[in-house]
Amino acid sequence: MVRILSVGLIVSAIALVAWGAITGYDNILQVGRMWQTPVIKPHENPIPVMAAGSVPYSGGEALYRIATDEEITPPFSLSDPSAVTAGKTTYQYYCIHCHGKYFDGYGTVGQSFAPPPGDLRSTRVQSMHPGLLFKEISYGIAGGRQPPLATTIEVDDRWNAIAFVKSLGVRN
Ligand code: HEC
Questions:
Q1: Model confidence over 127-140: pLDDT tens digits?
Q2: Atom 26 (ligand 1): residue with closest C-alpha?
Q3: Is 96 a residue whose pLDDT tops 90?
Q4: How far is the CA of 116 from the centre of ligand 1 (A)?
């Protein structure tokens, strides 16, 4: 019993000395500790709670999700050359590994999906409504394997990718 008590006492004493040393060191430190910096403070403020049933009336992803294909229109012309150029970069960042260098679905990982990605230059894809393309890229294909990329690619960049895909035309 005495032994347990003395071990406990020694451990407490060591912890106390360590705490004192760290606190003392903190006090002479020129910079604040991480938990004192303003960087993390904003995240500690509670996020305002929205009234139940609130919906945004402009902007935001929520509206795209419930819109029909026809209601979703690009914010700029899809034949705009700068959109097509930007879309090529977007494609190389986010699509090429599945859809492939030649847009035929033979990307590095593309063929491991079931169903595999089809040809983006097929008559079907090329004649698809831009709004539908936007929805598929953003929210995936129901029961399919297209990944939902809404949280990965910002809206304008998704449209750039669509402009690029459309610019490819039907494969001869
Ligand atoms: C992780 C792999 C992957 C990535 C990344 C990916 N896709 Fe896909 N995509 C697929 C697969 C698999 C399918 C077909 C399967 C299905 O029907 O769900 C598909 C289907 C599609 C279709 C429908 C084609 C059709 O025949 O109906 C379009 C359009 C498309 N992708 C465009 C894109 C674009 C543009 C990007 C980049 C912004 C992209 N995808 C990124 C895997 C991917």
A1: 999 999 999 999 99
A2: 118
A3: yes
A4: 9
